Structure prediction request, 86 residues.
Amino acid sequence: MKVMGVVRLDLSSCNFVGSVLLEIAALCRRLRAVVLSDLYTQRLTDELLRKFTALCPHIAHIDITNADCVTDAGMLSVVQKLSDVS
Prediction:
C-alpha cells in the first residue's frame, strides 16, 4: 500500500526507530517536504537521511533541526542527489 497523496509530513518530536522512518518513506514516495526535527529514540544520521531521501526523490525541503548526528558532508551528499532542489 502506498500513500500517494502525502506531499508534506511533520514527524518532529516523534519517537520511533530508523526502520520505521524508512517504512514511512517507502509508503510516501511523493513527499516534497518533511520535518525530521527533534526525533527521539533513533538519532537521525547521515546514512539514515541518505536512505530516506533515496526513497523520496522529490524532497525539496527537509527540516533537520537538532539533528546533531547529521554532518555537513552527509547533508551535501543528500542535496547533490535530489532532483527537485534548486
Observations:
- The radius of gyration is 12 Å.
- The chain has a mean pLDDT of 85.
- The chain is about 35% helix and 15% strand.
- The first strand starts at residue 8 and ends at 10.
